[in-house]
Design goal:
Blueprint: H1 3-15, E1 24-28, H2 33-43, E2 46-54, H3 60-65, E3 69-76, H4 79-92, E4 97-101, E5 114-120, H5 126-132, E6 133-144, H6 150-156, H7 170-180, E7 184-197, H8 200-209, H9 222-232, E8 233-234, E9 237-250
Parallel strand pairs: 2-3, 2-5, 3-4, 5-6
Antiparallel strand pairs: 1-7, 6-9, 7-9, 8-9
Helix pairs in contact: 1-4, 6-9
Bound molecules: S-adenosylmethionine.
Length: 260
């Protein structure tokens, strides 16, 4: 297992999936990114269409959109997340969804197998996505922007994509990687939103659920944590400023040979 998968397995074992009971009130100025992602993925579906979702974690987000497709495959590197996914699939009664323990870099699926590939804050592997998609197929990717939780990371002096805030926007890098692999980028949409945690305990729980602050430790990081809470507490709660994005891209359709 990679470090990443080990982290997510610990999360699944502690919280029963990729969601904790941390309470927050969220304010979405640009729309709720998960809702937009669901709408885009559902709009690309069809009764005979095949969806591949990479980095599916506990599968709950994938199960929400699965009825729009005839066959659905979710892949992840974390066995514990996939155990949760199997449970949620059984509860949802969606037998056309299968989950596989697999590195998305080597899906093992045939060329042109999928109509749509989705990755919701999961891995982005443009060459493999291009290979596994049929001509005309689409990829929908949700990523974490360079401004995400910036004030928190600055207070801790470390974190996911630390110090990338003045560089090239990460969504542009992703769009570039997809176009380098032969895709036509059709959407690049940013989402800035605020989460207001109801208590310090809620923010502490949340930081154990996500890899925003690598190796977050409540005791060792207490001084930075308290400093952050003191600086950002407002009437609504303890503010965490988020920045996500969605990039959608299409594999060009096959060109018919001309018979002139
Ligand atoms: C942020 S979580 C994704 C959450 C999920 N997509 C959702 O919407 O709820 C990232 C997941 O990607 C998985 N992952 C990371 N690299 C991977 C890879 N190369 N192949 C498959 N899964 C991977 C991790 O194990 C983790 O479960």
């Amino acid at each position: 297992m990679t470090m990443d998968a080990e982290f997510y397995s610990r999360v699944a074992e502690r919280f029963g999936g990729y969601r904790s009971d941390a309470r927050s009130t969220d304010v979405f100025a640009d729309g709720r990114p998960d809702d937009v992602f669901d709408e885009l993925a559902i709009a690309l579906g069809a009764p005979d269409a095949r969806l591949l979702d990479v980095g599916c974690a506990d599968g709950r987000s994938l199960l929400r959109i699965s009825r729009a497709y005839g066959a659905v495959t979710g892949m992840d590197l974390s066995p514990s997340m996939l155990e949760c996914a199997a449970r949620y699939r059984a509860e949802a009664g969606l037998p056309h969804v299968t989950f596989e323990l697999c590195d998305a870099a080597h899906t093992g699926l045939p060329d042109g197998y999928a109509d749509v590939v989705t990755s919701r804050r999961g891995p982005l592997i443009p060459r493999e996505f291009e290979r596994v998609l049929r001509p005309g197929g689409a990829v929908v990717y949700m990523g974490i922007g360079e401004q995400d939780a910036r004030e928190l990371k600055e207070t801790f002096g470390r974190g996911q994509n630390f110090d990338s805030w003045n560089g090239r926007p990460l969504s542009e890098e992703i769009a570039q990687e997809l176009s380098d692999a032969g895709f036509v980028v059709t959407r690049n949409q940013a989402f800035r939103f605020e989460e207001f945690y109801h208590s310090a305990g809620d923010l502490d729980t949340f930081l154990h659920q996500v890899p925003i602050i690598d190796t977050y430790d409540s005791a060792a990081d207490k001084e930075a944590f308290d400093r952050y809470v003191a600086a950002v507490t407002v009437d609504q709660g303890i503010r965490l400023s988020r920045h996500w994005f969605i990039v959608q891209a299409q594999k060009p359709a096959a060109v018919e040979p001309s018979h002139s």
